[in-house]
């Protein structure tokens, strides 16, 4: 690894200084990109492959953080991830949005969706099992293979011929359970898989049933994963037509109180209240409000394809900042341990680095004032990963 090369610092320290990115941000240039999607994506790919990817490879970024981006990641349609406890209406909501059933759909009051369901657009409606999905080079799900065959058995893709899915992709997740016994029966790490999808989603829809607001331990853990993506989070208080107006206010307040103890973010996520399925309202006293809330949510989703260019641009910028910080960390760690010591007494050196990692982070922040504290990785996770080397 060696000392951090001046070339990488100069080229990657701030993407906004790169000529291509300056043009992209410029309003008139962005308008030209909207007219020619391929031009935008090709230039974005080129900036990543020529400036960011070499830095990631040099300092083992992919072993510690995220896998390298592929062309399929850049070409992917905007993705909406649906998360919530079982029987909160996630699957019914997706069916309402696409206006038809999709292959593999299961709806019921019991925990019906036990798989990660990817719902995509296509001419030939079909169901694709997980192993075939990750093996398809035209889709951006190949990296899911690292979760193992047991997870792939719980992964499925439904191809549906409907106008909405021509510009967007939905992901339905297994209903989050409330019992420790049921949770222990999962054969894969649910939170790691959830984080994989959350990282790549443009919007995350967290659903709650107005009739049951209990937040289980597994849901708390899932929310803890999602709060790292709080800007994408949208909260749904579903089935609000089953209670009266006064109860809607009380339930909404109770939900905010419960989430306030769980979601630790400075901004309040948007909450949509209504009944998001294709059945008539059971109590239509709040019909006007429900219709307005539904329209606001659908307009929010409708804007995703148009804003996907900015989302990809922001993602590359965020990723580059994280890679730069990681490069400084790895370079500093290596400089603290002589080569001979690494060969003779690897275990001792490893433990010494792990024990002093907090001090290393603090010294790097003090030395390089341009680095943001928010771009530094979690110390505990970093210690675990260092032990693997």
UniProtKB/TrEMBL annotation:
Domain EH: 43-75
UniProt domain DUF5600: residue ranges: 307-387
SUPFAM superfamilies given in the database record: P-loop containing nucleoside triphosphate hydrolases (SSF52540)
Domain Dynamin N-terminal: 80-239
Xref: Pfam families: DUF5600, Dynamin_N, EHD_N
Taxonomic superkingdom: Eukaryota
Name of this protein: Dynamin-type G domain-containing protein
Organism: Aphis gossypii (Cotton aphid)
């Amino acid at each position: 690894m060696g000392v951090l090369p001046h070339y990488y610092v100069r080229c990657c320290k701030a993407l906004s200084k790169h000529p291509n990115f300056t043009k992209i941000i410029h309003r008139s240039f962005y308008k030209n990109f909207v007219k020619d999607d391929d031009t935008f994506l090709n230039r974005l790919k080129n900036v990543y492959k020529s400036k960011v990817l070499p830095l990631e490879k040099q300092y083992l970024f992919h072993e510690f953080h995220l896998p390298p981006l592929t062309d399929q990641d850049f070409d992917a349609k905007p993705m909406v991830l649906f998360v919530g406890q079982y029987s909160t209406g996630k699957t019914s909501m997706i069916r309402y949005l696409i206006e038809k059933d999709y292959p593999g759909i299961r709806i019921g009051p019991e925990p019906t969706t036990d798989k990660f369901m990817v719902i995509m657009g296509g001419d030939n409606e079909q169901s694709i099992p997980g192993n075939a999905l990750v093996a398809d080079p035209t889709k951006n799900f190949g990296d899911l293979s690292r979760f193992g065959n047991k997870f792939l058995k719980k992964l499925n893709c439904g191809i549906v011929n409907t106008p909405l899915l021509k510009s967007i992709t939905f992901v339905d997740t297994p209903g989050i359970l409330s019992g420790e016994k049921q949770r222990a029966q999962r054969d894969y790490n649910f939170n790691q898989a959830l984080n994989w999808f959350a990282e790549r989603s443009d919007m995350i829809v967290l659903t709650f049933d107005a009739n049951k607001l209990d937040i289980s331990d597994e849901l708390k853990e899932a929310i803890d994963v999602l709060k790292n993506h709080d800007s994408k989070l949208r909260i749904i208080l579903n089935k609000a037509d089953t209670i009266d107006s006064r109860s809607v206010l009380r339930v909404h307040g109770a939900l905010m109180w419960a989430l306030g103890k769980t979601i630790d973010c400075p901004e309040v996520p948007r909450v949509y209240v209504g009944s998001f399925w294709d059945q008539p309202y059971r109590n239509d006293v709040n019909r006007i409000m429900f219709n307005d809330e539904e329209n606001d949510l659908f307009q929010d989703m409708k804007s995703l394809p148009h804003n996907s260019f900015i989302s990809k641009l922001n993602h590359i910028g965020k990723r580059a900042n994280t890679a730069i910080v990681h490069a400084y960390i790895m370079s500093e760690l290596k400089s603290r341990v002589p080569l001979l010591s690494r060969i003779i007494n690897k275990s001792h050196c490893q433990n010494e680095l792990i024990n002093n990692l907090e001090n290393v982070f603090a010294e790097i922040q003090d030395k390089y004032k341009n680095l943001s504290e928010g771009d530094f990785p979690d110390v505990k996770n970093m210690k675990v990963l260092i032990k693997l080397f």
